[in-house]
Design goal:
- This protein has a single domain, classed as Glutaredoxin (3-Layer(aba) Sandwich).
- 36% of the residues lie in helices and 24% in strands.
- It has 5 helices and 10 strands; from the N terminus they run H-E-E-E-E-H-E-H-E-H-E-E-E-E-H.
- The strands form 2 sheets. It has an 8-stranded mixed sheet. It has a two-stranded antiparallel sheet with strand order 7-8.
- A hairpin with a 2-residue loop joins strand 7 and strand 8.
- Helix 2 packs across helix 5.
- The longest helix has 22 residues.
- The radius of gyration is 23 Å and the shape is globular.
- Belongs to the SCO1/2 family.
């Protein structure tokens, strides 16, 4: 009995496999980030909040920019000012591409963080940074969509806020790509953002 057809099939399968391997060589390597890669995760795709000038804002307003979004509150003693100061440093490290970075700060304390308070707070770090707020319900819904946890913690006659510390990054097309950890350096974060710039 002849085994020629089987041999021919085996050879063709080998050629096809080699061709696919070569095709794969031409594909750009996926970025390897220092932060958490959220590219294929089912996180939020949109938000709807108000800026300090009273305008309703959605993610679509920032298409064409890298967006870095952070949740916090203006009376935060350390985490929030550290994260925003790092964002200033990241913007500087990106050079010309820093002008394509939009930093958004979402308050988890809308009862105290009025538009005026948020605006003044943003000015301390960078006039181009945008503060966002919502009703208590909008704040909760937005935080839940980002898997952000926060809660009031009584402190005598007042209170403080415990909250998650990730900074979320959307690419130029408005896709959520990264969660930057609070302990990442500005240099590491800027490296991650450079990869997003290079991949678009």
């Amino acid at each position: 009995m002849s085994h020629q057809p089987t041999r021919r099939f085996t050879l063709l399968a080998g050629f096809a496999s080699a061709a696919l391997s070569l095709a794969g060589c031409n594909k750009p390597a996926s970025p390897v980030f220092q932060g958490m890669d959220l590219t294929d995760h089912a996180y939020v795709k949109e938000f709807r909040l108000t800026d300090t000038d009273g305008r309703e804002r959605t993610l679509a307003d920032f298409k064409g920019k890298l967006v870095m979004l952070f949740f916090g509150f203006t009376q935060c003693p350390d985490v929030c000012p550290t994260a925003l100061a790092r964002a200033v440093a990241i913007k500087g490290l990106l050079g010309v591409d820093g002008e394509r970075l939009q930093v958004l700060f979402v308050t988890v304390d809308p009862e105290r963080d009025s538009a005026a308070v948020l605006k003044a707070y943003m000015q301390v770090f960078d006039p181009g940074f945008i503060g966002l707020y919502g009703t208590l319900q909008q704040t909760r819904e937005t935080a839940n969509a980002f898997k952000v946890h926060y809660k009031k913690v009584p402190t005598g006659a007042s209170y403080t806020m415990d909250h998650s510390t990730f900074s979320y990054v959307f690419d130029f097309s408005g896709n959520l790509r990264l969660a930057l950890r609070h302990n990442q350096s500005a240099e590491e974060c800027a490296g991650d953002l450079r990869q997003l710039v290079a991949s678009t």
